[in-house]
Amino acid sequence: MITLIGEKLAKKGLTFMYYGPAKACEDCRYKSVCIDPLETGRIYKIKEVKDTEHPCPIHESGKVKVVEVEKANIEALIDAKKAFEGSVILFETLKCDEKCDMRSLCFPEGIKASDRCRILKNFGRVNECKKGYKLNKVLLEIISKK
């Protein structure tokens, strides 16, 4: 998908979280290319940077570049019984209120409950769950949103 990003941020491989449009974007002539393709709360990875630039009052340099992006793959912890490489799952968060080092993987940014995901890689079992859940760390590709 094509979008626009600040000139200084336009680097192949860069990942970014889209939090939503700035107020100044509402009436921008580039809105349909810049922010309309992006979904709030998702992480994107820049696949390619084009040479085309446009003016933008939001970004530090006053310019944006055209980039091709894709939704980034997300590392997460899931039920070990569902952790088969190549399989498609509906992502579900665990019922947990513990504060631990694993929390960011149990509730990863950029993915939402009931997203359809393909398990690209199974990194194996983690043995650190305070709740006693049997979890595997996996790399997920978001196939479709909720």
TrEMBL record:
Family: Belongs to the UPF0179 family.
Entry protein name: UPF0179 protein DPC56_07155
Database matches in InterPro entries: UPF0179 (IPR005369)
One Pfam family hit: UPF0179
HAMAP family reported in the protein's UniProt record: UPF0179 (MF_00498)
Phylogenetic placement of the source organism: Archaea, Methanobacteriati, Methanobacteriota, Methanomada group, Methanobacteria
Native source organism of the sequence: Methanothermobacter tenebrarum
